[in-house]
Amino acid sequence: MPLCARCTGIYSGFLIGALYQVALFERRGTQLPGRSISLISLGLVLLLAADGIASRFGASLPGNSTRLLLGLLGGFSISLLAVPLLNRFVRISGTDSPVIRGWKPYLRGLVMIAVSFAAHFAGSRALFYSLSYASVVGLAATYVLVAATAAAAITGWPSRRHRAVSGLLTGHSRKCHNAAPDAGCAGRHTARVTRRRSENGD
User: What does the alpha-carbon distance between residue 70 and residue 89 come to, in Å, rounded to a whole number?
Assistant: First the structure.
């Protein structure tokens, strides 16, 4: 593998979690999952961090399989906390709801993690390389998403973009009000003329 077992699990799990949330109906959600799911996710992330620190002192979890499983769970949990923050700071049209709504979508995501972990024991070269490539793509996706979220949070990019779009729409509305009717403004012009006639009793 191009990365160690723990890092392979982290970045593969993050990629799986991010793609899974994108595929959900509530992918624009800006809220974290429910309290229980958020606490479980945070606990797994802290456990992953503790194992990483312990490995510096030679006290890491035994076996690459165990580290791979913890990495998959930790990476998946990080994605559950990161994607809503990305939607909050980057998206303009985010919804005020969580991406993971309840236990069913959360458990389906864990099933995907379990399948990925089981592929490690299948002995298939194709599955082995698929997991390896997923970890590399997940590594790039992690840093891109984190950088985009941080940049948007610091610069306030979505709010400025929203104001710019609103300004363009407002300017277009004023243009339609002052200009002669054309293909873009004919409907609004006709509605104003009809309203004025009705007010004047014509």
Answer: 29
